[in-house]
Specification:
The chain is α/β, with parallel strands linked by helices. The protein has two domains: 151 residues, 3-Layer(aba) Sandwich (Isopropylmalate Dehydrogenase); 157 residues, Isopropylmalate Dehydrogenase, CATH 3.40.718. The protein has eleven helices and eleven strands. It has an eleven-stranded mixed β-sheet, sandwiched between helices. Helix 1 links the parallel strand 1 and strand 2. The protein is globular and about 60 Å long.
């Protein structure tokens, strides 16, 4: 049975939604155990006695704050995130889920768990909604690496392809390189060099533009962490703005209110597609074990889905596939 270590105290909203999400995950699936790392006196009473046989509690009172420098976490061995990562490092857990400081989680995972053989830099991947129901686009990197060389982006492509095959279940994924135009001549020096390297991959379809992230024309999009994080935050902002604009205008007109009632199902589908909680979290690709980095403001649904994502990742052969694919191009 898989064991998932969970940083119970790291999120912006405190431990309540993290515990609630864990409980919901345990209720829906009986194939894993949760290891909650945090203040036991605070979190244990929230778990019903009937579920506590599937939950381990690890005491940790120190919580690494979102505003602290990521590098400082290496000195905080009693913090929740440090102890949770070390459970994975020591083989006591198969994966970790954290809604805490993403930089601290990434630093600890890279240094304590370690990179896969041949991987130059780990990358954070995230799933983005598309115009087609139940089809998402994997985008990486979305924040782990601000400055990248072509060889880093090339490895991101390999990692993304392996994830698409082994976790998303796409037999022949299509990979695109995010640029300012589809022509191979477009882009900066790094993307042009990356284009030439990625041409070695049968799955590479060429440069793509920002709109292609959402039209399902490709399965994996490659970019550096600077661009990827802007894409991610912009997309979240646009989705929230559209929702608020619709609500604001619907309230102004009785006719619009009637129309909204008829379109309720459509709005429900739209909300589900753009809600980050549906995706749970972002896997850190390129480290030896499964690490899921969740949004700091994750609610219970997001934590539940992050745990499900961790289970799917940990139960796959994606890490082995990444090592084998990277070795082929060394």
């Amino acid at each position: 049975m898989l064991k998932i270590a969970i940083d119970a105290m790291g999120g912006d909203l405190g431990f309540a939604p993290i515990i609630e999400g864990t409980i919901k995950a345990l209720a829906e699936r009986d194939d894993f155990e949760a290891i909650l790392v945090g203040k036991i006196d605070a979190i244990k009473p929230l778990i019903s006695p009937s579920m506590q046989n599937r939950v381990q509690f690890i005491e940790a009172e120190d919580v690494f704050d979102m505003h602290e420098s990521a590098t400082d976490v290496l000195k905080r061995k009693e913090s929740t995130i440090y102890k949770a990562v070390d459970l994975v490092r020591e083989g006591k857990a198969d994966a970790i889920v954290s809604a805490g400081h993403s930089g601290a989680t990434m630093s600890l995972a890279t240094l304590r768990v370690g990179r896969l053989k041949g991987v130059l830099r780990p990358a954070i991947a995230t799933l983005m909604p598309t115009v087609h129901n139940n089809i998402s686009t994997l985008v990486l990197d979305v924040g782990a690496n601000v400055d990248c060389k072509a060889e880093h982006l090339f490895q991101f492509a390999i990692m993304g392809e392996c994830y698409a095959k082994n976790v998303m279940g796409i037999k022949k994924p299509k990979i695109g390189l995010l640029s300012n135009g589809e022509e191979s001549s477009k882009g900066n020096d790094v993307t042009k060099e990356t284009y030439e390297m990625m041409a070695k991959l049968n799955s590479f379809v060429g440069n793509i533009e920002g709109n292609n992230i959402f039209d399902a024309s490709v399965n994996v999009v490659i970019c550096d962490g600077f661009v990827g994080n802007i894409v991610l935050k912009t997309s979240e902002g646009v989705a929230e703005s559209i929702t608020n604009i619709i609500k604001m205008n619907v309230r102004k007109s009785p006719l619009a209110i009637a129309g909204a009632a008829l379109m309720r199902k459509v709005f429900k589908i739209l909300k589900k597609q753009v809600d980050y909680a549906e995706y749970g979290g972002a896997p850190l690709m390129g480290v030896k074990k499964c690490v899921i980095i969740s949004h700091g403001k994750s609610n219970a649904k997001a934590i539940k889905n992050a745990i499900f994502q961790a289970l799917k990742f940990a139960d796959s052969h994606v890490t082995q596939a990444i090592e084998e694919e990277i070795a082929e191009f060394e």
